Amino acid sequence: MSIFRDNKRSFFRSALMLAATIVIGYLALLILFRNDPVLRVEFNDLLFPLFNGLAAVGLLYAAYRSKIYGRRACIAWTFLFIGQLSFMLGDITWAILELGLHQEPIASAADVFYLMFYPLFAIGILLLPSKSLTCKEHLKLLLDTGIIMISAVLVFWAFLIEPTITANKDDTMVLAISLAYPVMDLILFFALLQLLFRRLRSAEQEPLFLLAVGIGAGILTDVVYLMQSLQETYATGNLLDLGWLASYAFIGLAGVLQADTCKLRAGASVLNTSEPSDKMEPRREQFSALTYLPYFCAAAAYLMLIWSRDHPHSSFSAFSWGIGAIIGLVILRQIVALDENMHLYKAAQMEIDERKRAEEKLRKSEERYREVFEAAPDVIFTASAKDAVFTSLNPAFEKLTGCSAAEWLGKPFLKIIHPEDLSVAKEMFNDSLTEKDAHTHELRCLSKSGEYLTIEIIGVPQIENGKIVGELGFARNITERKQAEEELQRAKDAAEASTKAKSEFLANMSHEIRTPMNAVIGMTGLLLETDLGQEQRDYLETIRSSGNTLLALINDILDFSKIEGGKLELECQPFDLRDCVEDSLDLMAATAAEKGLEVIYIYENDVPDKVIGDVTRLCQILANLLGNAIKFTEKGEVVLAISSLPLEPGKIELNFAVRDTGIGISKDRMDRLFRSFSQVDSSTTRHYGGTGLGLAISKRLVEMMGGRIWAKSEPGKGSTFQFTIVAKSSAPESSAYKEAVSRNPSLTGKRILVIYKNDLARSMLAKAARSWGMIPALAASGKAALQMLALETFDFVILDAVLPDIDGQYLSREIKRGKNAKAITVIFTPIGRSLLRETQVDGWLTKPIKPIQLRSLLMELLLPEKDLMPGSACPKPSPGEVRVHSLRILMAEDNPVNQKVALSMLKRIGYQADVAANGFEVLQALEQQPYDVVLMDVQMPEMDGFEATHRIRSSGSKICIIAMTAHALNGDKEACLDAGMDEYISKPIRMAELQKALEKCIPIKEYGSS
Fold it and tell me: Is the pLDDT of residue 881 over 60?
C-alpha cells in the first residue's frame, strides 16, 4: 500500500510531519550533547552520510520507477541520484579525515565529491522532460531567469564572493575552493529556477515541489555557512546543520513520492504505451505564484544599490550596471506582459463572440427541438419530480389517447395508467429520478373512449442546471404490434405442437417398425448358424440383407428427421482417426470383395492420429460415401485420401476425398446431389437402389462439423466426393516421434518384394515399407515376380491373391520352391475368400490393406515361435462348446416374438433368462428371488420400463439394468441412463452388442464381496 495519497492535503501533511520530526529530533540531540562539542562533531559526521544515503536511495528508486515516463525522465533522476551519491561520498570522506585521521577537512578530497554534486544535480534538473514552449514563452523564461540570476549574482558578489577573495587572497588553493562553492551554488540556483519556471511534464507536481524545497534549503544553508565561515562564527553541531539535514530529507522524500506516483500510475494503466515514451501528459501550470519573484528581486537589487553607497569596499559601479540591466529586463518583461495581456483580451473577445454564436445555435436548436416536439409521431412528455404531474405534452398525446393535451397538463400521469401497471410505472419514474439505466416498459394507457391501449414507454431524467427536475418520457402505441405478436405466438405454439406430434409419430413408428425387425433379423441370424443347405442359406442371406437394408433406410429417415428438427447434437470426444477410417473400410470390405474392387486408403504424414470430434457421425459420412462409390463401380478401385490443414491454435481442417472408377455423373445431373429424397437418375435408382437421403444427411453432418462437401465427376470415368470438417487437435505427435515409432530395428534394412496388381496399392505398400526402414522392390504380375525372385534374394514377400496372369496361391508355392524359400510370405485375400490347403504362406490378411496391421504382422512373423498363420480364422464353436455363464437374468419384454428372439440369442451365447411381460411382473419377480441383470424394455403395458427402474432404484437395489428397447431416437439413450439404467441396446438386437453389455455386469454376490 502506498504511504502517499493523491490529494494535496495528505501530501503536505506527510512532508510537514517529516520536517517536524527532523527538527525535533535534531534539537533533542543538540540539547543532549550541548556540553560536549567533540561528541557533537562526531554525531554530525556520522548523521550526515546517513541522511545523504537515504536521500540517494529515494532518488535511485525514483529513477527506476520513472521508466514509465520515458528514457529521459529515467536519466534525469539517475543524474540526481549520482549527484546525491557524490555528496554522500564527500560526507564520508570528511568524516574519515576529521574523525579517523584527525586532519582538517578544509581544501581536501572531500571537496572534490562536494563540488561534483552541483553540476550533476543541475544536469539532472535540466534533463527533466518539459513541455515545448513558444517563442514568447521562451522569452518570458529568459527574462525572468535573467532578472533573478543577476540579482543573485549581485547578492553573492556582495556577501560571499568579494569577501572570500579578500579573506583568502594569500592561499590560492583555499581561494579557488572557497570561490567554487558560491559559483556552484549559483549554477544550482539557475537549475532551480528552471525547475520552478518551466512547465515540466509529469503526472503530479508534488515530487518536483519537494525537490525544489530541498534544493532551495540546501542553497540557503550553503550561503549562511559560507558567510559564517568568513566571519569565523560557524561551529559544527549548531542549528545551521539542520538546514542540510532538511534539504537531504526533502530531496529523498521527493524521490520516494515520484516513485510512488509512477507505481500507482503504472498499476492504473493510465499511460498510453503506444505513444512515444518521452511524451508525457502535460500537467497544470507549475508554481504560478513565483511569477512575481522577478519583481521582488529587482526591488531587492535596488535596495542593495542604496546599501552599497554606505559600504565603500563594495563596487558601486558594478552594482549600478547590474541594477541597470535588471531594470532593462524588467521593462522588457512588462512589454511582453502587455503584449500577452493584449492577446488575452483578444482571446476573451473571441470567446465572447463564440459564446454569442453558441447561444444563437442553442436558440436555433431549441426551435428545432420545438418543431420535433410538435411534429413527432410518438408522445413526448415531461413530468415533475415533485408530484409526477405532466409539465409538457406534445400533440401526439391527443392522437394517441383522444384526450386534449391542455386538459392533462398539471395532472399526475399515473392517473392515465391501468391500475395493474401502476407499480411498473412508479418503478420507471423512480429509476429515471435516480439516474438508473433506462429500460423500455410496456404499460396499458387509458384512452378517451374508455379502452386501454398498450404503449411502449421509456423515461430518462430531465436535468436543468445540473439538477434532476423531473422525467422526460417517450411513448409509442404498440397495440397492433402486440396483437400481431399474440397471433404469431399462437401460430408458433401450433407449429411446435405439430412438430411435437411429428416427433412422437416418428418415435412410435421407430418403435413399431424395430419391434418386428428385431424378430426378422434376430431369427434369421440364429437360423444361419444352424446346419442348412446351400439354397436355404441363400434364401436366408437374402432375408437378412433385405432386413439390414430396411433398417438402414429407417435409420436414414430418423437421422434426417432429427437434423431437420434441430435435435441432432454432435459429440466432442477424443478418438483415433486411423481406427475410424479403417472401421469404415471394414464395413464395405465384403461388398467390395463381391465385386472384385480394390479399396485403398492414403493417410498423409501430416494427418494426426488423435483428434477430438464426433467419431460416430464421421464414420457415418465415410460409410455413406464409400458405400455409394462401391455401389456405382463395377470394376477398378475406390480410393479414400485423408489430408489435413492447420487452422487457428488447437484446431485443424481434415480433408477427405473418396474417388472411384465407376459410372460417373453427367454435368446436368450434378445439381441434384445432396438434395433430400432426390436421385441423380431414376433409371439408375431402379438398377442400384437407394433413398436419396444418404448424401443429404452427409451434407448436413459435414456442415454441422464446420466443413463443406462437393463432388467432381465425369461420365464413364468415375467420381470424386470430397468433404472437409473442422476438428480439435488432441495431444500433438511430432514427425520425429512418428518416425521413431514406425521404424523398428527388426525391420530396418530388410528387403521386401511387393507383388500387387493395383498400381496405387503397390506404391502405397512401397511407401509404407520405406517408412519402416525396409528396402522395397515392386512387381505388377506373377511372371515379373518370378523373374525377380530368380535373380534376387528377399527377406519378405507381400503377395496379392488375385493377380492378372498367375493365381496368387499358386505363386506362393513357387516362391517356397526357389532360392527365396526362407523368405517370409504374406498374402492379401479378399474378405470371405478361403485359402487352399496347398497355399504356402506364413501369414495372411484380408483386404482392404491396412499398413499398421501389416507392420505388426511382419514383426510377429520374425519371432521364432510364430509357426502358424496369424491371420487364420478361428472356427465357430459348436452348441456343445458354448460356455454357460452364471449370471441370473430377468428379461422384461411384452412382445412374444421378441421374447423368443432374445431368449434364443441368450442361449446361443451361453446365458439363460426368466421372462416378465411388464414392469409389475419385474417387481414381483425381484421380490421372489434375486437376479443379477434385468434386460428392461421401455414401452410395456401397465407399467413401463422407466417406472419399473425408478422403483427398483428407490428400493436401494444395485442390480444391473440394461435397456433393450426399440426407442432409438436422439436422446432416448440419455433418457434411459438418466432414469437409472446402466447400459443401452437398441433393437434390432445384435448378438455381439448383447454379449458385450452382459460381460460388463457383475453378479450381486461378487459385487457385495468387492
Answer: no
